[in-house]
């Protein structure tokens, strides 16, 4: 496996592959890998001849009060894991090369997709994500890029940007990978104190509860939201950021659930660990 640090070197590698007629699959990440990331890499391997993984903790998608400095990092361990996963290139640039002096361009997807859910709680987050993913697509020049469905709004934003800017990259969504007890895998799970682990299960259990109640015939998202809020708050140290029922493609809120309704949740545990989860209700 090659480790590439410089964008120009990464693009030179990509051009060589394209010349040889090889398909490149990209998995954009911020590192601190877990089984969820590895499953994205395996999926990319099925769709392309060579897999490139980018590892870049992108400063522009973190707000001033967020966890950029504390974000978990372990480069040695990450290298060993991607190598074992059969990845061809690990692209790990430094911030000064991604955002050199004078950098002043932002890719901003419209508020219909970015103004609600995580976009409402994290102003500027999706502009940071869209900008860095657009840059990564230009640098790595992938044929296909694989993203996890846990970041469901991110996926919608990236699909929109890719279509609107004719980036010519196939966007593939990969299902959420969960721990045995249902917790969606996330690098941020490492922030949880042992006694908060049970409270983190409030998200996946709330999804299950919503499905059970919907299967019994409930369609009102207002009534479901009330039940789910009380349910989540029955776990210690939980604070609901949002419980939203939205259309799977447009992300617009719905009053009544149907087959295309996704329930999206964000919950803060212990006042500092913000976790998200989502899934179709029916
Ligand atoms: O999902 C992530 O890890 C990040 O938002 C991404 C897509 C790598 C952009 O920094």
TrEMBL record:
Annotated positions binding (R)-pantoate: 61, 154
GO molecular function: ATP binding; pantoate-beta-alanine ligase activity
Enzyme Commission number(s) of this protein: 6.3.2.1
Protein's job: Catalyzes the condensation of pantoate with beta-alanine in an ATP-dependent reaction via a pantoyl-adenylate intermediate.
UniProt entry keywords in alphabetical sequence: ATP-binding, Cytoplasm, Ligase, Nucleotide-binding, Pantothenate biosynthesis
One Pfam short name: Pantoate_ligase
Metabolic or biological pathway, per its Swiss-Prot or TrEMBL entry: Cofactor biosynthesis; (R)-pantothenate biosynthesis; (R)-pantothenate from (R)-pantoate and beta-alanine: step 1/1
Chief site of localization: cytoplasm
Assigned protein family: Belongs to the pantothenate synthetase family.
Designated name of the protein: Pantothenate synthetase
Subunit structure: Homodimer.
Cellular-component GO terms for this entry: cytosol
Subcellular location: Cytoplasm
Record bears the keyword Membrane: no
Residues that hold beta-alanine according to the record: 61
Miscellaneous comment as given in the Swiss-Prot or TrEMBL entry: The reaction proceeds by a bi uni uni bi ping pong mechanism.
Catalytically driven reaction(s): (R)-pantoate + beta-alanine + ATP = (R)-pantothenate + AMP + diphosphate + H(+)
Gene3D superfamilies, A to Z: HUPs, Pantoate-beta-alanine ligase, C-terminal domain
Signal peptide feature range: none
Binding residues annotated for ATP, in chain numbering: 30-37, 148-151, 177, 185-188
SUPFAM superfamilies with a match to the protein in the record: Nucleotidylyl transferase (SSF52374)
Annotated catalytic residues: 37
UniProt entry tagged with the keyword Transmembrane helix: no
GO biological process: pantothenate biosynthetic process
Source organism per UniProt: Candidatus Electronema aureum
């Amino acid at each position: 496996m090659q480790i590439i640090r410089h964008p120009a070197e990464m693009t030179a590698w990509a051009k060589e592959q394209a010349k040889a007629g090889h398909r490149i699959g990209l998995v954009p990440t911020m590192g601190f890998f877990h089984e969820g990331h590895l499953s994205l890499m395996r999926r990319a391997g099925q769709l392309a001849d060579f897999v490139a993984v980018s590892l870049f903790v992108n400063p522009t998608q973190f707000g001033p009060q967020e966890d950029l400095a504390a974000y978990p990092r372990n480069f040695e361990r990450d290298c060993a894991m991607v190598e074992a996963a059969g990845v061809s290139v690990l692209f790990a640039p430094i911030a000064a090369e991604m955002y050199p002096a004078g950098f002043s361009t932002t890719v901003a997807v419209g508020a219909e997709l970015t103004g609600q859910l995580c976009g409402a709680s994290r102003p500027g987050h999706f502009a940071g994500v869209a900008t860095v993913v657009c840059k990564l697509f230009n640098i790595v020049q992938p044929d296909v890029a694989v993203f996890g469905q846990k970041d469901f709004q991110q996926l919608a934003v990236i699909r929109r940007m890719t279509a609107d800017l004719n980036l010519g990259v196939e966007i593939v969504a990969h299902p959420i990978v969960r721990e045995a007890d249902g917790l969606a895998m996330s690098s941020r799970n490492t922030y949880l104190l042992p006694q908060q682990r049970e409270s983190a299960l409030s998200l996946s259990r709330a999804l299950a509860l919503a499905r059970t109640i919907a299967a019994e015939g409930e369609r009102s998202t207002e009534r479901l939201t009330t039940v789910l809020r009380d349910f989540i708050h029955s776990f210690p140290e939980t604070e609901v950021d949002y419980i939203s029922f939205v259309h799977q493609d447009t992300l617009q809120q719905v009053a009544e659930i149907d087959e295309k309704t996704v329930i999206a949740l964000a919950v803060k545990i212990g006042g500092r660990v913000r976790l998200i989860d989502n899934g179709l209700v029916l």
